[in-house]
Amino acid sequence: MTSSTTARQASEQGRVLADPNAYADNDRLHEALTWLRANEPVAWVDNPPYRPFWGITKHSDIMDIERDNELWISEPRPLLLPAETEDAVKRDQDAGVGLRTLIHMDDPHHRDVRKIGADWFRPKAMRDLKVRVDELAKRYVDRMVEIGPECDFVTDIAINYPLYVILSLLGLPEEDFPRMLKLTQEMFGGEDDEHQRGEGTTEDILAVLLDFFTYFNKVTESRRANPTNDLASAIANGTINGDLMSDMDTVSYYVIVASAGHDTTKDAISGGLGALIQNPDQLARLKNDMSLMPLAVEEMIRWSTPVKEFMRTATADTEVRGVPIAKGESVYLSYVSANRDEEIFDEPFKFDVGRDPNNHLSFGYGVHFCLGAALARMEMNSLFTELIPRIESIELAGEPEYTKTIFVGGLKHLPIRYSLR
């Protein structure tokens, strides 16, 4: 193979990383990622309307980058956005009215802001919450019985269960849950015809962010005036070096918890059930040995990989796998690819409920490891511990559909036919 042919193929395959349609087509996506891992694991990608970047597809390279959070920083480009949207978001941030969540921040500010909500996701807090999560798991499996023998598992169950958990933890009123769901879908589904606001333009995306900002500014005012025993009050009244957080940082904290705190779990839950249905031997294996549940949950999370990517920018000239990367250039960390890396996982395209070890990167790695990982694992464990023993039969009742996305996504429709005890 000539170098010119290699470059051309790398360009074609690499562009998949910046194509929302590819994430709705698993065969196409994984064919490209498998090729990149084998032939061009550090690939230059230039696919307008996105600014160019280096696509990183190997598990070990992503871990190395995540470890070195001084050489590789989140700002100014923590995730892949169209250039026009990137610029508009930056203008809003400079004006103090945009969103700057934990994923946008670097240490030491990131560390200080993260601490404000960290106690709500520690093991003791999870133990205290487990009774409530178990109750909700039973409620939603009972709901499947009520609406059966068919349902769209995503829209009827997987969306609502984690949404109820996280927004209750925040202390938001239940009548506002549909609004939070819609804003989340519009924010993460900006490239998807079904979920985007309007035409999904930069102006539409900014309007969604402004709606979040307006809503949570009111929450901040309320919780500062009348603190309550919920996560929203902890965020509103959290201080750094004795000072309250800025309005932008406070609102952004709410947004990342209220949106990613349920949407990613929804993707893992629905992706997990979809995998069990399409691998009936693994469903039977789990049903016959429920002690496998913790391992099965990890495999569901690996398999679905709800967060597709984060980006980092080099603070100095460096190299990855011998490829020179200049100061100021950005790398795209493909977690979807890392979670199918043949050097890390035996038979990576096999769904295995007993996979051990399972060193997936679905929660990221290093200082930006997902704050809500323990909660997501607990929610999934509770739901599937309730659901699996009650399944008498289950099958697809139509074609699963995936969200078009660049950042966060998974199944948006999973029609199923079933019988539950």
Automatic annotation (TrEMBL):
Gene3D superfamilies: Cytochrome P450. It holds the Pfam family p450. Keywords: Heme, Iron, Metal-binding, Monooxygenase, Oxidoreductase. It comes from the Bacteria. Its cofactor is heme. It comes from [Mycobacterium] wendilense. CDD domains: CYP142-like. Belongs to the cytochrome P450 family. This is Cytochrome P450. PANTHER family: BIOTIN BIOSYNTHESIS CYTOCHROME P450, P450, PUTATIVE (EUROFUNG)-RELATED.
